[in-house]
Amino acid sequence: MTVSANPLLSDRDVDFQLYEVLDAPALCALPAFSEHSRETFELVLGNVRRFSREVLFPTYRMMDAEPPVFRDGRVHAHPLMRKLYPQLVELGLLTASRPPEVGGQQLPLTLYSMASAYLMAANLSAYAYVGLTIGAAHLLEAFGTPWLREQFMTRMYRGEWTGTMALTEPQAGSSLGDVKARAFPAEDGSYRISGSKIFISGGDQDFTENVVHLTLARIEGAPPGTRGISLFAVPSRRPEGDRLVDNDVRVAGVIHKIGWRGMPSLALNYGEEGDCRGWLVGEANRGLACMFQMMNEARIMVGLNGVATASVAYHEALAYARSRPQGRSAGAKDALQPQTPIIEHADVRRMLLRQKAIVEGGLSLLAATSVQADLAAHSPDEETRKRAGLLLDLLTPVAKTFPAEKGFEANVLALQVHGGYGYSSEYLPEAWLRDQKLNSIHEGTTGIQGLDLLGRKVVAAGGAALQAFSEEVLATVARARQAGVHGPWCAAMEASLEAVLELTMSLGAMGMAGEVEQMLRHSADYMELFSILAVAWRWLAQAAAAREGLAKGGESQEFYEGKLRAAQYWFATEVPRVKPLVKLCSSGEDSYTGMRPEWF
Amino acid sequence: MTVSANPLLSDRDVDFQLYEVLDAPALCALPAFSEHSRETFELVLGNVRRFSREVLFPTYRMMDAEPPVFRDGRVHAHPLMRKLYPQLVELGLLTASRPPEVGGQQLPLTLYSMASAYLMAANLSAYAYVGLTIGAAHLLEAFGTPWLREQFMTRMYRGEWTGTMALTEPQAGSSLGDVKARAFPAEDGSYRISGSKIFISGGDQDFTENVVHLTLARIEGAPPGTRGISLFAVPSRRPEGDRLVDNDVRVAGVIHKIGWRGMPSLALNYGEEGDCRGWLVGEANRGLACMFQMMNEARIMVGLNGVATASVAYHEALAYARSRPQGRSAGAKDALQPQTPIIEHADVRRMLLRQKAIVEGGLSLLAATSVQADLAAHSPDEETRKRAGLLLDLLTPVAKTFPAEKGFEANVLALQVHGGYGYSSEYLPEAWLRDQKLNSIHEGTTGIQGLDLLGRKVVAAGGAALQAFSEEVLATVARARQAGVHGPWCAAMEASLEAVLELTMSLGAMGMAGEVEQMLRHSADYMELFSILAVAWRWLAQAAAAREGLAKGGESQEFYEGKLRAAQYWFATEVPRVKPLVKLCSSGEDSYTGMRPEWF
């Protein structure tokens, strides 16, 4: 009795975010996007929606059930990938946001984000091959030599080869400064690479002829720690003349992941036979700096994945709640009457409304963050670029973490709505729950995002980043007031913002006084706090747009009423947590920093 | 690199709960337990600890990896069960808390609860066969005819047969009033049973010769709804003379559960060939009343399972955090220095301390609830029995829900502490995460527990239940003050209690005025609120006992310091949520009750 027609995301909501909450087509006024218009947006979204629902989503369960197989030294992806990957390439995804010089369409990231959310919701593993290839090729585009761009990047963008990010080593997970893989300069200008990597997503497959690993390693004699790490392009098979020959990158094992099961996560050994060649990307010893330039975009993609994975589960739960009869409304106890759909029960609606608030609040945050990314990269005005860059840096850890953490909570609720059926693998919610869990771990754990937000981002540029955020929030409050949004929400938004600003200044002062440990003590609580605030900002913006829409009349009245209820939910249940969290973060409370390991 | 020596639960903590926070051996002053003493407690716990660690825990992973198989119409349990079940029986578990008349030892439930937590933490599926058999046999003990007791109950208590609870039907999950299975009186005094059941845990196996299903069905002509449901004992094979013959109970399918994978969950068909016989248990049409008399104990067992499943994962995470080197402490950036164990990172300690607060707070709540169950069943004083019964009824939904919901959160944190490794099935945290999820669903979902707590339990007996709870909390505050516990915690406890009492009275008044929908609007938030309060009570009691212990000196100083830090954590991070939650529950906030299905 699985519900099959899942919209993945609400089209009405995506349009609402792009055209009513934001004015995304206005980005087309920037020279970089001047070829585009709202018509392009609709065309791209139309194609992606159709493909995601009709082609990609039906493959999800099969790929989850049959993970890639490691046999005879090679990884064999699900046979479906031989068909799917060319279709994903044909859709133009690999170069959608890249410039025409490399064959791209240069669409705004804002549009690409929304489009990719559908693909992720439909089948995140199939899409991940694309996403990783884009990331790897983009590094070559930004830092590679002309030879590397021609030999490697072009083939990756054309869909002939795929790419990976090969950072992690068994002894160095979050601590990249401890990477040990080595690189010895060779006479031909390449390097001989040796070492081991782990958790390499898409590290091998059999549906394209080659995989290029963007690999962190230390050049012989480099300084220890983060300052001695370089970036290399290391293909599984290297070009020699017209042929590809084995490049001594071996699959050492497959990790049995609990989710993202359509894509392999591998342990790789480089140079077991001393014949692994890599090519330096960017300057020697500047490998981490190169990686970090791509980090915002990578983290936005994780955030989108969080939203997408929560969204597809939310829509499944919603359809189930509408169709599953069970019990009767409070008061109506007549057992001869038919049972009512469970959506009639207040507690089921609570679970659905919480999911809606998380999913659509998260999507709105990602859309707003993507706009800043577009402005930061493409505004012709330097001041605008700088300010947008600060906002992008500030919002990114929140846009990565909120969907990962609260999206997981939404996935739990989607399972719970299904009752006992949710606990069985005949139904899909448990699969999305497994998928979602990775998002709090990869691309910087939630703990690391908290340190990044509080220790760097909110105190950046002498407070200019936070100042810019504050202006954005206050502009939204003004818009909401103008639109006639419930006054107490506007007041709560202002008061919450002020409380967070004040807290941040006092924590920043601690940091400047050298009390870093004390400043960062509650970085996890601060992340929670800032997430509530940032999502309240997005719900206020949505409430404003809903009020504006209602004033215009038309067909979307029910949609707007739903938006106002979800905004109400956020302001009634989450925003009141700001005050106690501010108090906690400023209290000097030291239970866990003071807890000694031997006391556990 | 899995960490293998897992203590399951901390022995020191279990002893602390039994002998320092509570005075559990004082229960032996009751006539029913007069044969026992602290020595019995230690003997029982010693056996269970040894068996759980040495025999049961090593089987967990194998049974999770190879669920029971449905072949040729029969379910074949993991072959290990053929050895394990007799060992579990030999340990005396089936009748540990039963009276001597049925061959039992009549141990206090308080002791049995703590002992069973070890077994559940070691291998919940293996133990579940025992737990279900006890529940089914106990129903026969309480309501069965002498013939049923002799024929069925005795064999179940002896470990020769197992038992199940067969309540749920596909169209009637939480809504038992909609059960459709039918029973026709036959001339021999038995009934002919027909119908279908689903999610029947342990519904078939091949390690004992028979399974008895305590089955809800309607006798031909019974009134509709909950008042027409009767309870029957329906064996898979029925006794005829000296033989067992097939009783026409068929396995219709196996549900692929995501956890508890060592135990099958089945769809059963009764009477496909018209030859299924059942025997009435208790009075006709009073089946639900019989079931509900066992409900407190069943829900306490679910709560224990939640604690146990969170506990084993917490101890795994703790050991991992102590042994896994990664990164360096804040400030120490010298890459030539060795990496530190991750327990040195404040955010890892936060995750561990939160787990500790949930696990040990939950265990303390279950121990306190079990004491009330013992007093309610066995105190010679009627007033005491009545008061304890009210407390038991009040605490049970909280003791079931808190470990299910917050225990799941603890399991998520245990996975997160393991980083990328936690996302792989080579490590155990993901398995316990899957196991834990069932606890918010079975034996009454979290939503149903919230309605039970607010709609029935806290307003029971004209407020007498809440009054008794309030007395218990205030007695603990007095003890804490006496022991020198941090004054502000005592004050916060009193203030929180008062706020919850006041809220409850105003909600109760709504209910009496007939505004039931409005009264119950925030039942989920009320459950959250009451859980924070109840666990704060238990942490205050633990802080008092820790202070008393510290004053005595001795070897446990580090243990007590850890207890005080965990209490501090609860009072600093959870108790401040009481105020906004009280406000939310009394605000009339109507976002989800007012959200119409078509607005989603």
From TrEMBL, chains A, B:
<comment type="similarity">
    <text>Belongs to the acyl-CoA dehydrogenase family.</text>
</comment>
<dbReference type="InterPro" id="IPR009100">
    <property type="entry name" value="AcylCoA_DH/oxidase_NM_dom_sf"/>
</dbReference>
<dbReference type="Pfam" id="PF02771">
    <property type="entry name" value="Acyl-CoA_dh_N"/>
</dbReference>
<dbReference type="InterPro" id="IPR036250">
    <property type="entry name" value="AcylCo_DH-like_C"/>
</dbReference>
<dbReference type="Pfam" id="PF02770">
    <property type="entry name" value="Acyl-CoA_dh_M"/>
</dbReference>
<dbReference type="InterPro" id="IPR052166">
    <property type="entry name" value="Diverse_Acyl-CoA_DH"/>
</dbReference>
<dbReference type="InterPro" id="IPR013786">
    <property type="entry name" value="AcylCoA_DH/ox_N"/>
</dbReference>
<dbReference type="Pfam" id="PF12806">
    <property type="entry name" value="Acyl-CoA_dh_C"/>
</dbReference>
<dbReference type="Pfam" id="PF00441">
    <property type="entry name" value="Acyl-CoA_dh_1"/>
</dbReference>
<keyword id="KW-0560">Oxidoreductase</keyword>
<feature type="domain" description="Acyl-CoA dehydrogenase/oxidase C-terminal">
    <location>
        <begin position="285"/>
        <end position="451"/>
    </location>
</feature>
<dbReference type="InterPro" id="IPR025878">
    <property type="entry name" value="Acyl-CoA_dh-like_C_dom"/>
</dbReference>
<dbReference type="GO" id="GO:0016627">
    <property type="term" value="F:oxidoreductase activity, acting on the CH-CH group of donors"/>
</dbReference>
<dbReference type="GO" id="GO:0050660">
    <property type="term" value="F:flavin adenine dinucleotide binding"/>
</dbReference>
<keyword id="KW-0285">Flavoprotein</keyword>
<dbReference type="InterPro" id="IPR006091">
    <property type="entry name" value="Acyl-CoA_Oxase/DH_mid-dom"/>
</dbReference>
<dbReference type="InterPro" id="IPR009075">
    <property type="entry name" value="AcylCo_DH/oxidase_C"/>
</dbReference>
<dbReference type="InterPro" id="IPR046373">
    <property type="entry name" value="Acyl-CoA_Oxase/DH_mid-dom_sf"/>
</dbReference>
<dbReference type="InterPro" id="IPR037069">
    <property type="entry name" value="AcylCoA_DH/ox_N_sf"/>
</dbReference>
<feature type="domain" description="Acetyl-CoA dehydrogenase-like C-terminal">
    <location>
        <begin position="470"/>
        <end position="595"/>
    </location>
</feature>
<feature type="domain" description="Acyl-CoA oxidase/dehydrogenase middle">
    <location>
        <begin position="165"/>
        <end position="265"/>
    </location>
</feature>
<keyword id="KW-0274">FAD</keyword>
<protein>
    <submittedName>
        <fullName>Acyl-CoA dehydrogenase family protein</fullName>
    </submittedName>
</protein>
<feature type="domain" description="Acyl-CoA dehydrogenase/oxidase N-terminal">
    <location>
        <begin position="42"/>
        <end position="160"/>
    </location>
</feature>
